[in-house]
Amino acid sequence: MKVLVANLGSTSFKYRLFDLPSETQLARGGIDRIGQANSACFVEINGRKEESSQQVLDHAAAVQICLDQLTHPEYGCVKSVSEVAAIGFKAVFAGNMSGVRIVTDELLTKMEDLSDIAPAHNPMYAKAMRQLRAAFPQIPLVAALETAFHDTIPPENKLYSIPLEWAEQYEIKRWGFHGASHRYLNTRMAQLLGRSDLKVITCHLGGSNSLCAARDGKSQATSMGMSPQTGLLQNNRVGDFDPFALPILLRKTGKTLAQILEDLSSKAGLLGLSGVSQDCRDVEEAAAKGNARAQLALDVFVASIRQYLGSYLTVLGGADAIVFSGGIGENGPQIRANVCKNMEWAGIVLDEAKNNSVPRGGEVCISAASSKTQIWVIPTNEEIVVARQTAEAVGLK
What we know:
The protein is α/β, with parallel strands linked by helices. The protein has helices at residues 59-70, 105-113, 122-135, 155-158, 164-170, 179-193, 246-253, 257-266, 269-274, 280-288, 292-316, 326-331, 333-340, 352-355, 382-393, and strands at 2-9, 12-19, 24-32, 39-45, 48-54, 84-89, 100-102, 141-144, 199-205, 209-215, 218-222, 321-325, 364-365, 374-377. Helix content is 38%, strand content 21%.
């Protein structure tokens, strides 16, 4: 059975096609700058790469291009659209409608109602799903909510110290995100170590960042809270922030609450602190040249990771493994080294040579022989998780 996995941005559509149950990736591709005059399209099938430029009006049109690519008479990998059994989406937030769900009007309405919690994600996902349901009614759509992996977090780690009725009536909780990534990394660690009874702390570090503490493959705590703007500082999102600072900002800046929230979700994080860029590579380069603000941003970033890491060692009672993943986690040896620095007291010792020689895309243990806790770099694979969940949701074998 063939399952298409879609990853949406406000002006982008990226996909992978898997053949299940073998989990063979048949194709990948995408369209950038949707809605603009010159949208960029690419596809990679059977080692062949094709690139083109054309106007793509919306996400439904992008999916049609994707299906045209997959069925192309010269290089396509399927003969007909009917071979695509379902489309799975790495959707983000629907409150109490968490889990893996067939896309319905009720789900879409819920996602739209909660758009202010995930403004960079929910609006385009809901819009695209509505377009796709209308354009391709014969293909089941499945939403794999990012909060699903964290449904196992116990109440003491999930609830804020607010009036309990706010949690019960308004769904104000630490929901957590990056669920597909944390699920994949825990599954992979169990495979690598041949054990299911592991205590693992996974560090998803990239454009957005979160840590997760898991026991026996089940989430026990995670750094992101009610929204993806919380927890660790992000590329351009604030991370943890005291809401009682808002009245001061409203008075002093003259901005509206909506404008302040927009600043906190787009002009903060690495970008706001460094004044250089939201890309960690640019910030590291500037810091290496003596830019004090860039170095400060990196120091705050590392400190926030270490604070959550220490907390999760307490939650789990130690860890069998710490895993780094995501663009920064996989490709940032200095960040990894700084996170693990002076952690011998916790049985965490990095091997400097191994850490500095991780091949791109490599799956490598980088802990020293003396380390009681294994330290790994593992490229995440959120798409295969969504493919598996999609297949299960629609009853495919």
